[in-house]
């Protein structure tokens, strides 16, 4: 094997390794998003919202029952 041939082989090895490192996480993320999109939709349960008491006269205080 000539040194030029070995050098080309090393370059392609490095290129493939870099592509795996860069594209690997993107492929995993895309796969996870595909799985999430394929999952059946679930219905969220809405919590009862409590409403605050707003007095008509803010200077007036509540009287306590005796």
Describe the overall structure.
This protein is mostly helical and 66 residues long. The chain is built from one helix and no strands. The chain has one helix spanning 3-38. The chain is rod-shaped and about 100 Å long. The model has no long low-confidence stretch (mean pLDDT 76).
Q: What is the number of strand segments?
A: 0
Average pLDDT for all residues: 76
Low-confidence stretches: none
Biggest sheet statistics = none
| Distance separating the two termini | 103 Å
What count of helical segments does DSSP give?
A: 1
Beta-strand level of the residues, as a percent range? under 5%
Structural class: mainly alpha
Chart the SSEs and their pairings.
Elements: H1 3-38
Defining key terms:
55% helix; 66 residues; mainly alpha; 0% strand
Short description:
The protein has 66 residues and is mainly alpha-helical. The chain has one helix at residues 3-38.
